[in-house]
Amino acid sequence: MSKLDDIVSLCKRRGFIFPGSDIYGGMAGTWDFGPLGVQLKNNLVNTWWNYWVDKRDDMFGIDAAIIMNPITWEVSGHTATFADPLIECNDCHSRFRADKLVDGYSESITTEEFKAINPKCPNCGKTNWGTIRKFNMMFQTHVGAVTPEDENGSETDKELARRSIAYLRPETAQGIFTNYKNVVDTIYPSMPFGLCQFGKSFRNEISPRDYILRDRECSQFEIEYFVKPDTWEENFESIRTEYLEFLQKYLGLSKAKIHELEVPEEDRAFYSKRTIDIMYEYPNGEEELMGIAYRTDYDLGNVAKASGKNMEYRDKNTGETFVPHVIEPSMGLERAILDILSEAYTEDEINGEKRVLLKLPEGLAPYKFCVSPLLKNKPELVEKAKFVYNKLKEKYTFVTWDDSGNIGKRYRKQDEIGTPKCVVIDFDTLEDDTVTVRDRDTAEQVRVKIEEL
Ligand SMILES: [Zn+2]
């Protein structure tokens, strides 16, 4: 088993991540967070929000609707170009993403390039391919009282069906650009300022794979940082420095495993003057964790044109007006979770015994403390332990109780789910009000007064 298999198995065994709709045979490209996983996820979201929004004076949060007016996606270019190259095997009719069957090609691969290499069909082994088609990855739906029959009904019905088409948002960023004017007109932020959003986005991937790295439903942390055009370089640098610090200090990712990739001009979106991909070495190789892109005034310019509204910002002090430029750091939640787990997953030996532990940063661990009585059949120990448990729960919230099996088994379980401290109540506690506190990473035990916890 590879290290990634070990992580996947731990996540399922301990209730972090389950395959989506598992009980009915699954649903490709979807994953469900279990009791421990949702706690880790919520802690990550709160850590991010706290760092980027709460602690700063120049950042504000928004939470836009998932279903937006479809004009949004025409304006952003998603309707026309948010597509992957789809190829079909003429023999078994399996469909694949063409650029993933051959090495060294991007989404812009042509049928000629593909057929020059002519890879074998991963399903049937033949090489009888059709031509590459552009497959739009937006999930389409109908909004309002429209039935499937309307699409094949009278001309009026068809028109009704056509006009009711909407999409699940393929990115969260457009919800920020479409609210830029609302925010400026209501809270008059000083320049530069950022709008932050966390939420779901949807991509109908042709072949979802790599565990939670490429799923069809995912969550994004996005910031659009609006700056005066001639200050974009310094703002890009400060966002970049701050984000790298955030990844190390709060997500626990080690500097040696984070790599910055300066995206060359030919690979950047045409409007972007600079893009950095931040890669992380997870067990199966390097994968993109996030990107930081300088998007000029491309997005606000498009919104202005399509809406007929003025997107200019008027400087409160100088009276100067300009359309702000934008720096966009964008990170995927599932990618971040996988990187955090990869970094935290550790195998070591304690007193000659092998163990698995998750060295999660304290702010992310599902539980901060586990409280247990040394023996569960001694009522006086259980009673004292309940007292300590309730006291800690009031103070730290994320505290769990465990009185199953023997103490060694409990430690191993808490190590595996990343609980930093185990607190054990024994007979000495009844005498002197001290408890044993065991550290997850070192397995060292110290006696601590209950009131000092
Ligand atoms: Zn085939």
Brief overview:
This protein is an alpha+beta fold. It has helices spanning about 5-15, 35-55, 70-75, 80, 110-115, 155-165, 175, 180-185, 230-250, 300-305, 335-345, 380-395, 405-415, 425-430; strands at about 15-20, 30-35, 60, 85-90, 95, 135, 140, 165, 195-200, 215-225, 260, 275-280, 285-295, 315, 320, 325-330, 345-350, 355-360, 370-375, 400, 420-425, 435-440, 445-450. Strand 12 and strand 13 form a beta hairpin.
Task: Describe the 3D structure.
- With 453 residues, this protein is α+β, with helices and mostly antiparallel strands.
- Helices cover 32% and strands 27% of the residues.
- The chain has 14 helices and 23 strands.
- The strands form seven sheets. It has a seven-stranded mixed sheet, sandwiched between helices. Strands 20-19-21-22-23 form a five-stranded mixed sheet, sandwiched between helices.
- A hairpin with a 6-residue loop joins strand 4 (83-88) and strand 5 (95-97).
- The longest helix has 20 residues, at 35-54.
- The chain is globular.
- It starts with a helix and ends with a strand.
- Bound molecules: zinc ion.
- Residues 89, 91-92, 94, 121, 123-124, 126 line the site of zinc ion.
- The site of zinc ion (ZN) has 8 residues, from loops.
